Amino acid sequence: MLDSAPTPLTLDAAELAAAIDACADGAQACTACADACLAEEDVAALRSCIALAINCADLCALSVRALSRRAREDTFLVVRVLQACAHACQGCAEECARHAQHHRHCAVCETACRSCEGAVRRLLGAEALEELRAFGSG
């Protein structure tokens, strides 16, 4: 799909596709994990996990959409969305790791979040985003 658009890519197509796929996987895993947490008997102990997973799912899904819009790319906005996504994935993965031994869905979610965070951070480190990333942090 990325190659079919008339707008030229400013980022490496393979890295961009990997980030989109990882974010889509993260959104699905986080949504399913939050839902599974709600079905657990010890749901009160999983409140933080549920909240972090819901936020992470939303940011992963937003990242998929932002990265897929090529016609009028707003790089500053994309950088900010990806930074928020990486932050949410890191927090969700850390929380899920606390529950992974007892809840398989948390182990799966942790893996998906770490994968998404890595893919997004690689994209944020891409040369095409470097100048605007630096501008955005200042």
Layout of secondary structure:
Elements: H1 13-39, H2 47-68, H3 75-99, H4 104-124, H5 127-136
Helix pairs in contact: 1-2, 1-4, 2-3, 3-4, 3-5
Write up this protein.
The protein has 138 residues and is mainly alpha-helical. The chain is 76% helix and 0% strand. The chain contains five helices and no strands. The longest helix has 27 residues, at 13-39.
Nearest-angstrom radius of gyration?
16 Å
Share of helix among residues?
Answer: over 70%
Major sheet characteristics:
none
Q: What distance separates the N and C termini?
A: 34 Å
* Uncertain runs: none
- What's the count of strands? 0
Shape: elongated
Beta fraction: under 5%
Number of helices: 5
Concise structural overview:
The protein is mostly helical and 138 residues long. It has helices at 13-39, 47-68, 75-99, 104-124, 127-136.
Features:
single chain; 138 residues; 5 helices; 76% helix; elongated
